[in-house]
Amino acid sequence: MKPFTTLTGTAAPLLRANIDTDLLIPKQFLKTIVRTGLGRHLFFELRYDDQGRERPDFILNRPNFRQAVILLGGPNFGCGSSREHAPWALLDFGIRCVIAPSFADIFYNNCFSNGILPITLPMAAVEDLATEGLLTVDLPAQTVSGGGRSYRFELEPARKTTLVEGLDAIGVSLASLPAIEAYEAKRAQATPWL
Description:
Number of helices: 8
Radius of gyration: 19 Å
Order of helices and strands: EHHEHEHEHEEEHHH
CATH superfamily: Aconitase, domain 4
Shape: globular
Strand content: 15-25%
CATH architecture: Alpha-Beta Barrel
Number of strands: 7
CATH class: Alpha Beta
Structural class: alpha/beta
Helix content: 25-40%
Number of domains: 1
Oligomer: single chain
């Protein structure tokens, strides 16, 4: 995974409540197990009309938000079915951070597994940040700032470490490889019949 330390970029406000995983990436695009190419299907039903043409009024189709790296959402972001394709689509589009008042648990966990930082802030703070086009997310300092305002967010230390160091679950395990190998060697001596 790509390490996440400081991110400065365009923040797209989509302050709807209950943005579910089917809205993020509809079921017809879940046939793949590769993580690339899903960004074009992100928010498919909101971004495109029935003929496949872009809806110019949708936030991510507007010229000033096409390169958004931060998404501002409403409460219960990522609810619905458990699909890892949702963070894959966000990441493939270019979104590295989602800021919302609350997240569905599975989506929240899937974000960390895929290098996306989900930040929980009160709705008033999210609405305040939505008035700014450019935000800076500083993960080591645990702050989001823009327009002269700054908000601190809380994050579990282990999750922070994995993002800052760019470690997925396999990377976390490999960081303990010497201890694992030592244990396996000791166990092989104690129980050679296994």
